[in-house]
Structure formats: C-alpha cells, structure tokens
C-alpha cells in the first residue's frame, strides 16, 4: 500500500479548521472541558505528587503549567503529570476502546502553552489526534484489550504526537515523522489495571506525544512507513498478522469523531461497569431496596469486561475501580457511585464488603460491533423474601455517545470535580471559557487560581 504514515502526516498538516463540522467541534469542546475538570479532581491524588516528585520537578525548561496549581514544569513533565491526573480517578471520557481526552488534552495543553497556540488551534489539534487514533483502531480486527494491550497507552502516544505536530505547525513529512517516532513509544498492559501504573501509562502516552513532535521538529528521523510496514506497528500489534493494511484512508470524508463521539463518564470507575451500575441504581431506587433485604445480585455482562474488572474483593479505592462487585455494592449501599465512594474508607466498610460475595455473573463472548463490550448488560436483584427484580437489557450507559449528557449535566460533573477548592463563580467562569475554547487566545486563559 502507499505510505499510510505519510498520508496521515499530510492529512494533519493540511487540516483546516473550516473543514471540521460544527458538531465535531462541539464534541471536542465537551471532551476538553470534561477532562479539564477531571484533571483538577485527579490532581489531589497522592500518585500525582509521587510522580511529580520523582520525574517532574526540575526536569527541563519550565514552559508549561500543572492543573490546577499553575506550577511550572517542562512541556514533557506537564503532559506527564497532567495526564496522570486526568486518568488517576478513571473518570475521564471513553471512546475508541480507550480514553482519548486523557491522552490528548494534557499533551495539547502543555504544547499549546509553550507554542502560544490559540484556543481554536487547540480544538483542531484535538480533532486531528482523535481522527488518527480512530483510523489506527479501525485497522486492527481483534480488540487490543483481548491481547493484553491497554489501547490508550498504545494508540494514545501516536494521537498525541499528531495533535502536538499540528500545534507546532509541522509540515506533512515532519508530522509523519512524529507519528513514526511515537510508534516506537507505545505500550502498556491491561494486567496493570487497578494499580497506579494504569494512569501512569496514560500520562506517558501524553508525554510521548509531546516528545515525538519535539524530536521530529528538531530533525530526528524515523521511517515514514512505520505504521504499515510488514515489520511496523500495525503488524506488530496483530497477533495473527491480520491487520487491515489495505483499508483505504478517506481523509476528512467520513469524520470518525462524528460516528464514534465521546462517552462522558458519570461514575469514577472503569467504564466496563457503567451499564450495570445504571441498571442496579434504577432497581434500587424503583423498589427502595436496602442492603439487608438483598440475598443475591446477578449481573449479565461480557467476558472481556470481566477481564478488565479483575478485583473481586477490593480493599482500596483504586482496586475498587476495577471491580463489578464493588460497583454493585456501592449502588446498593450508597445509592450512588461517586468520588466519595471510591475511597479506602468506604470500600473497607463492613456493609460494603458484605455485598461482594452476593454478586454472581453470567458472561458472554459476544460483543457489540466495534466494541469490547457485550451487546447489553443486565442486573437481577433477589431479596431474602424471594422476590426477583430484573433491569432488562441496558445497551448504552447514560452519558454515552448514544445517550449524551446535557450541557447542564456536564457542568454539574465539572463543578463537583472542582469541589470546594474554588468558589462557584470561578468554577462557572472556568467552565464557560472551556465551552468557548475556540474563541480564547490560548491555554493561559484557562488558568485556575485558588
């Protein structure tokens, strides 16, 4: 096939804001705004301080800012630390088998600040990165999760490199070079889900994109067929050598972002649980179920989903993010699954732990087209009195691209993420700025101060 890597470079370099449909820009704005709020909440996590202490402070010229403190770091370090903050709560959006904004937004904020890029340029960079990620994913017939790969850590660096190359205004060849460099910076495994390393993988994806674009701009060379070569990335990821190398690349004719969109998370926990949480919360509310009244909770879900949800008896908030047992327990005990539930203290409560053994499963290997998830999830709750309440099939989670949150609902999540650290007027102003990003002068207009 003709050079796919170079074709992507040409598409990104030539991408004009006027080409991008207004609906695509709106999706990108929502993703950036949601991710920014999640970053503020995530910045309070001890892991962020740990990585910043070990890898961030003092590493290079301080040209970019951490969110929300405004402390200065190198571009690469800011992308890393903000990327970890974006994903550490597992509250960032979902699409393309991963977390696009978690990898793209930290890289874009850091690079845009250093490059003095406008808000409009940041928005275009986001769309460019999203389209590259989606195009790569479409060429892999077997979902990466099933092979042990963390898609955000594998495809995120390339998407972030594309976005940063756009902000640096690199030409087609150097943009393709940035993509090729990033192809050698991919990696991350599902086995590390439920540990600090999962969010580190996302931070590294953002950082790798910044580095790849920087090195391409400086003249580092790479193969301009690094993606599609018989010994390139697509074939390396494809266990049976069945990567779809001959798939035509229709640049800007069919926008992936319009078709795939973004799913904004309502719960700070692995997305594989969200449909089941919706089902359980509805049953608990409709039938006013109390924990002591419940004998059994049965969840119908997908095999690949349970592969991600590896913790059946979590003891920490981090472990609980990858536990269907915890998701059901929180829905029943707290009647919500929010930031206050994914804490060590809540997870270890006796009444929460008591629910875990009551949760059982039926799984299916069948998946929705283009997804790792089962066609639908369902929950049945049986009481000690012998009554069984059934949710019915839940095909799409609330907040998904198919059932999107309203602007007001996105705002409520944003305000909750910023918490009591900032006054209401400041939270409102920050949200409004993010929602009109393409009219801002640059990343500096998004700065928060206590």
Secondary structure topology:
Elements lengths: L3 H11 L7 H21 L3 H11 L7 E2 L6 E2 L1 H13 L12 H16 L3 H19 L13 H17 L4 H12 L12 H23 L14 H5 L18 H5 L13 H14 L6 E9 H6 L8 H4 L3 H10 L10 H4 L2 H4 L5 E6 L13 E6 L4 E3 L16 H12 L5 H12 L15
Parallel strand pairs: 3-4
Antiparallel strand pairs: 1-2, 3-5, 5-6
CATH class of the largest domain: Mainly Alpha
Could you give the distance between the termini?
Answer: 54 Å
Beta-strand percentage? 5-15%
Instruction: Name the CATH superfamily classification of the largest domain.
Output: 2-methylcitrate dehydratase PrpD
Shape-level CATH architecture of the largest domain: Orthogonal Bundle
Q: Decide which structural class fits the backbone.
A: alpha+beta
Order of the strands making up the biggest sheet? 4-3-5-6
Number of domains: 2
Count the DSSP helices.
19
The overall pLDDT, averaged over residues, is: 93
Helix content range: 40-55%
Order of helices and strands: HHHEEHHHHHHHHHEHHHHHEEEHH
Low-confidence runs (pLDDT<50, min 5 residues)?
none
CATH topology of the largest domain: 2-methylcitrate dehydratase PrpD
Tell the overall outline.
globular
Q: How many strands, which pairing sense, and closed or not: the largest β-sheet?
A: 4 strands, mixed
Using only C-alpha atoms, the radius of gyration works out to: 21 Å
The total strand number stands at 6
Give a verbal description of the structure.
With 450 residues, this protein is α+β, with helices and mostly antiparallel strands. It folds into 2 domains: 4-260, 2-methylcitrate dehydratase PrpD; 271-390, 2-methylcitrate dehydratase PrpD (60s Ribosomal Protein L30, Chain: A, 2-Layer Sandwich), CATH 3.30.1330. It is 49% helix and 6% strand. It has 19 helices and 6 strands. The chain has helices at residues 4-14, 22-42, 46-56, 75-87, 100-115, 119-137, 151-167, 172-183, 196-218, 233-237, 256-260, 274-287, 303-308, 317-320, 324-333, 344-347, 350-353, 407-418, 424-435; strands spanning 64-65, 72-73, 294-302, 359-364, 378-383, 388-390. A 4-stranded mixed β-sheet has the order 4-3-5-6. Strands 1-2 form a two-stranded antiparallel sheet. Strand 1 and strand 2 (72-73) form a beta hairpin. The radius of gyration is 21 Å and the shape is globular. The termini are far apart. The model has no long low-confidence stretch (mean pLDDT 93).
């Amino acid at each position: 096939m003709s050079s796919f890597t170079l074709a992507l470079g040409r598409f990104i370099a030539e991408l004009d804001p006027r080409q991008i449909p207004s609906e695509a820009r709106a999706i990108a704005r929502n993703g950036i705004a949601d991710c920014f709020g999640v970053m503020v909440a995530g910045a309070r996590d001890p892991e962020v301080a740990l990585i910043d202490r070990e890898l961030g402070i003092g590493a290079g010229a301080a040209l970019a800012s951490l969110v929300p403190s405004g402390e200065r770091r190198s571009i690469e370090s800011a992308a890393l630390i903000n990327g970890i903050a974006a994903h550490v709560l597992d509250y960032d959006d979902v699409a393309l088998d991963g977390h696009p904004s978690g990898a793209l937004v930290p890289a874009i904020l850091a690079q845009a600040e250093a490059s003095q890029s406008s808000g409009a340029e940041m928005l275009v960079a986001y769309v460019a990165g999203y389209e590259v990620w989606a195009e790569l994913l479409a060429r892999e017939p077997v979902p990466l999760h099933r092979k042990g790969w963390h898609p955000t850590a594998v495809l995120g660096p390339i998407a972030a490199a594309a976005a940063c190359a756009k902000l640096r205004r690199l030409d087609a060849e150097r943009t393709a070079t940035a993509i090729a460099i990033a192809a050698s910076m991919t990696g991350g495994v599902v086995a590390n889900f439920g540990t600090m390393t999962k969010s580190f993988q996302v931070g590294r994806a953002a950082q790798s994109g910044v580095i790849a674009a920087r090195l391409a701009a400086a003249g580092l060379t790479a193969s301009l067929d690094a993606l599609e070569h018989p010994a390139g990335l697509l074939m390396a990821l494809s266990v049976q050598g069945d990567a779809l190398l001959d798939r035509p690349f229709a640049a800007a004719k069919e926008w992936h972002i319009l078709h795939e969109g973004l799913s904004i998370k309502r719960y700070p926990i692995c997305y594989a649980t969200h449909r089941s949480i919706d089902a359980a919360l509805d049953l608990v509310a409709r039938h006013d179920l109390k924990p002591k009244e419940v004998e059994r909770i049965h969840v119908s879900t997908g095999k690949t989903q349970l592969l991600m949800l590896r913790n059946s008896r979590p003891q920490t908030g981090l472990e609980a993010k990858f536990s269907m047992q915890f998701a059901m327990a929180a829905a029943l005990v707290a009647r919500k699954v929010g930031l206050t539930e994914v804490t060590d203290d809540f997870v270890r409560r006796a009444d929460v732990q008591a629910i875990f053994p009551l949760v059982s499963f039926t799984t299916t290997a069948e998946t929705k087209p283009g997804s790792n998830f089962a066609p639908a999830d369902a929950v049945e709750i049986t009481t000690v009195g012998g009554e069984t309440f059934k949710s019915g099939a839940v095909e799409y989670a609330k907040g998904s691209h198919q059932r999107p949150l309203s602007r007001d609902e996105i705002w409520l999540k944003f305000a909750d993420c910023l918490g009591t650290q900032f006054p209401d007027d400041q939270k409102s102003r920050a949200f409004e700025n993010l929602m009109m990003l393409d009219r801002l002068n640059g990343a500096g207009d998004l700065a928060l101060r206590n």
